[in-house]
Each structure stands twice: as C-alpha cells, then as structure tokens.
Automatic annotation (TrEMBL):
Gene3D superfamilies: Winged helix-like DNA-binding domain superfamily/Winged helix DNA-binding domain. Residues 1-94 form the HTH arsR-type domain. GO terms for molecular function: DNA-binding transcription factor activity. Coiled coil: none annotated. This is ArsR family transcriptional regulator. Pfam families: HTH_20. SUPFAM superfamilies: Winged helix' DNA-binding domain.
Length: 113
C-alpha cells in the first residue's frame, strides 16, 4: 500500500468540486481578480471565497492583495503530485489490461479447432 500523502489528498479534495474545477479552468487562461472569478458563479461571495480558500490551502492557486483588489493565479507546479499519481495508476492498469488481453488472446487461440 502506498504511503499517505496529505498534500495529494488536499489536491484531490479541492479538485472534487465542479465549481473549483471551473475556477481552475478559468485561471489556466491567466490571473483574475476575485470579482472577475465570482461574476460567472451564481452563489454568494462568502460561499465563493470558501472555494478559493480550499484551492489556496491545497496549493493549487495563489492570491495576492493590491489595495482593495485580490487577484488569484494558478500554481501549475502544485499539479505535479496529482499528475505523478495518475501516471502511476495509468501504468499499473495499462499493464494489467495488457496482461489480460494477452491471456484472452491465448485462451482464444487454444480453443480454436
């Protein structure tokens, strides 16, 4: 069994919500103010900022305040552990499926008259 990785758990928890994924999709195009991000979401500002806090605590975004304006930006390097974990899982399952395919092919060949 793999060791526990709290940072990976936080990233997946943050990614589990569709609102947060939409925020990340928007920030992939470039930084935006909280007001710009909130404008396209039909929810209260406190609820929306809770989503931003979850993303920031997972390290997926950063925010900075200039005067009265808070802006957010994507932290692409924070996605590396998620990508690494997914690549490991893909390789594991691809290997299993390749072996299963070979087994089915072998069984089919053996049963041919």
């Amino acid at each position: 069994m793999a060791k526990l990785d709290p940072a990976l758990d936080m990233a997946f928890a943050a990614l589990s919500d569709p609102t947060r994924r939409r925020i990340l999709e928007r920030l992939a195009r470039g930084p935006a103010t909280v007001s710009e991000l909130h404008a396209v979401h039909d929810m209260s500002l406190p609820s929306f900022t809770a989503h931003l806090k979850k993303l920031e605590s997972a390290g997926l975004i950063t925010s900075k305040k200039e005067g009265r304006v808070r802006s957010c930006a994507l932290s692409p390097e924070a996605f590396a552990p998620v990508q690494d974990w997914l690549a490991e899982q893909r390789a594991l399952w691809q290997g299993r499926l390749d072996r299963f395919d070979a087994y089915v092919t072998q069984i089919s060949e053996e049963r041919k008259p």
